[in-house]
What does this fold into?
Amino acid sequence: MAKIEEDEPADTGGWINTFADLMNLLLCFFVLLFSMSTVDAEKYEQVVKSMSESINIFDGGGQSMGQGPFIDSGTDQVVAISQYFNEFESSGDDAEATEDQSNQQPGESASEQGENKDQGGQKSDDGQNKSDDSQAKDNADQQAQDQNQGQQQDQNQGQNQDQDQDKNQDQNQDGKTQDQDQGGKQDDSETGQQGQQTDQNPQSQNDQNKTGDNIDKATVQAVEEQQAAEQKKRNEEAYEEVMKAAEDRNIEDDISVQMDKKNQYVQITMNGALLFDSGQSSLKPSVRPLLSKVGNILKMYKGNRIQILGHTDAVPISSGTYPNNLWLSMARATSVFEYMTEVKKLDPHNVETTGRGEYDPIASNATAAGRARNRRVEFRIYTNK
It folds into this structure.
């Protein structure tokens, strides 16, 4: 029986199909990776742009992705919390609306890109698609168109946000103006209330004024007391000096030294009978030595004010030289003044004369002894400054 020969399998080139399928799958894989990376970059740019325009945390965001609301207006401060959330929500709504519109346009969505890629894969399976280089070029051109359209949409969105920002700024300015007006009215009302309280509380103001007056009075009183104490000390020292000078000159029995009760001066008194004859104003020659010693004491106080006073008794004058006792007392004081300024060389600018007549008696005019005491000449040495 003859051997039947088996037919050899025809060479159909199956490895070529397998290799083509493998290459198509590899190409689809790289295309998928490229599309995924492009989508992530677009999303990243949108997030960065939104963050830069809303709270301005990225440096140079306005220059790299279009002018934002803060860069465009020339400011760089953080807005209020409420305004920030409002703008952020509005920007989110605009972004969603823009994304929906972009999804509806042909050649822009990821689904359509996926369909195109699937179609490309099917075409490659059928052997009717273009070459790998031409397909990559087409994809690159399509991606560039998508980016241009996205930038235009971002610019439109930025303009809308700028308009919203301008509106918000106008509203804020209007609110500030209203707040200022209300603040001015409130200040006026507070001022009026303070004025009313001041009018309603006059007693408190009077109390405060009284307190201030009391403090001023206490201060003035303290100063006056201190000055009075110093004046008293000076007057006492002058009194002791005059007494010692009279004792040194042995005239303490011929004169009388007193100290003013108000501590204004020290007074030396001489008997008028020793100085003048009855009804006369000329000095007796016998009293000149005594008057000279008194003048030496007065010269110790040539810088102080010295007053010379003439006194008479109450008996009416009988001589026709002077019309009354007042004129006689003034003439006697003048005679003593001339002696002290011409003989003892006292400064006439510091010495003054006064005639008191019978108006300042120190004893009763009913007796001869009293009238003799009333006829006198007084020298007052003022120690006050």
